[in-house]
Amino acid sequence: MNRKLVFTDLDGTLLNIDKKISEESERIIKAFIAQGHYFCFVTGRSIDDALPYYKQLGLNTICICNNGAAIHNPADKDFNDIFFPMNKTIFFKIWDCQEIQDSIEYFVIKTKHNTYVNKIPTERKIKERLKTLFHLDFEQMKNVRKEALIYHNKDRRSDILSMVLILKPKTDLEHIYYLIKSLTNNLLISHWSIDNRGFEQNGQVIIELNHNFANKLNALKFTQSYYDVLWADTYVFGDGENDVAMLSKTENSWAMRNASSHAISASRSITRCDNNNDGVARTLEELFMPK
Question: CA-to-CA distance for 10 and 19, rounded, in angstroms?
């Protein structure tokens, strides 16, 4: 049997509601790896946030972080980390546009090791969405000086891996796209609704800006080449909008039972169990470890 290459998202996919990998999932995944297969994370988390889970499973493979903007292999000291940061000149053009700033309620900036926000949100749905997307500990942030939360124009030391803008309600999304593209037409721009209502119904919108090469699918292709594994032996699991591109690329793709409608539409299959019931591990067990 050819060696298989499995990519899995973490939050909402491999991790349960308590942000843990269950003992049963750990047992099954370790048995799958012991057969000689590759098992890789592909997550929006930074490497610092993903590393405890990487160590729990005893992985020695590539770990794709920051939605594809960072590629690591913590188990290989000779592996040179790969980053796809935004050009700082372009970033500050967007940052300094007053019309864009006036349309933003919140922003999140991800660097290699830190996350910056303009303020701590008070709305429950926004707090939950940002916590899911960026794993922010708002209780801990309450004890941090406000100046330490905000990315200042003078701070040009840290490469910016992604910038997220949460627009004020009823903001003209098309005009914001026009403003951004008038400043640069070479960034990857995506958007989605906070509460699953499209902007046409005045749902509040998140815009994410990344390096044009920084996405999960491109990082997945790099990893395939690195391990010399073809699409036929590549398996993908995800649950969210940022998983759609990689889910739609391969026939061996599974959206979680609890996935968003976008992820379900893009995938070829749906797991029998959700993330709280070992959906990823159970699927691997059914495919490769039949009883």
Answer: 9
CA-CA distance, 157 to 170, in Å (whole number)? Answer: 35
Q: What backbone phi and psi angles, to 5 degrees, belong to 209?
A: -115, 130
Which of the 8 DSSP states describes residue 151? -
Please name which of 113, 202, 89, 96 lies closest in space to residue 161, comparing C-alpha atoms. 113
Measured in degrees and rounded to the nearest 5, phi and psi for residue 158 equal: -100, 130
- 225-261: per-residue pLDDT in tens? 999 999 999 999 999 888 999 999 999 999 999 998 8
Closest CA to 72 of 219, 280, 263, 262: 219
| pLDDT of the residue at 72 | 97
pLDDT tens digits, one per residue of 202-217: 567 888 898 989 999 9
Distance CA 242, CA 44 (A): 8
